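[Q] Does anyone have a clean structure-token version of this?
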Amino acid sequence: MLLTPLALTPLLVACAGPSARRDGADALAAMAGLMPGTVPAGPFALAVWQRTAKASALSLYIEGDGLAWLDRSRPSPDPTPVEPVALRLAALDPAPAVAVLARPCQYRRAAPQPQPLCDDPRWWTERRFTPATLAALEQAVAILKERAGAERLHLIGFSGGGALAALLAARRSDVASLRTVAGNLEPAWVDRLHGVDTPSGTLSPLAGVERLSQVPQIHFSGLRDRVVPPEIAEAFAEAVGRSGRSIACIRRERTAAGHTDGWAGAWPALLAQPLPACGAR
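[A] Here you go.
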């Protein structure tokens, strides 16, 4: 069977280095009017893409863990994703104000100051859900929100970005909605599933479960996902529902997707689903 250029693209990118992956991401973003840049975030300068129209709400996508590991025991020297799922989904979002936030050390660009921390792979392995990482992302979120002139945030997180989106939603008062896609909603559960230890200092989204129970949210899971299977979102939703003072704020949906594949084709319909209407107990 002959492969079309579009079908070949993921194969070529998978074999490409970090610079080629970054250039491919920039090209994908440009077609959707998402302009590349960086945003200061603690000791990092995080890569972002943003549609700069002013709006009352900003749809903010947080990328997954990317190429964090070469294999089970070897960290990657660069975590830039092979498949930029969050960026692909953001490119399909018709909202006037959309931004995509990369994780520390992904898509490295020339920055005003050197980033020596990006020589340390612990930032995209054992430290990816720590207070320092969350604080850096929170600074970046505030800047992106200000750039859009927005008052509210719609947070969308893919995979490990789902954990960070949930952690941010539990800390902030300006989050109008939360959506996760193949979201690692409780890192300790996912680590246990794969037989690995949870690093010290890892934050748990469940620690903010009472606050989260007031946020309208949908968690999308892939039926073919072996990395973060649907059971993770279902257990998380049950925990949020048990602890909250409201009902019907949370919904989970399964679709025929894997961990990284199948989401882009389904996203316009999934994004169009109405958010739950929260009701008092």
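[Q] Thanks! Anything notable?
[A] The first helix runs from residue 5 to 14.
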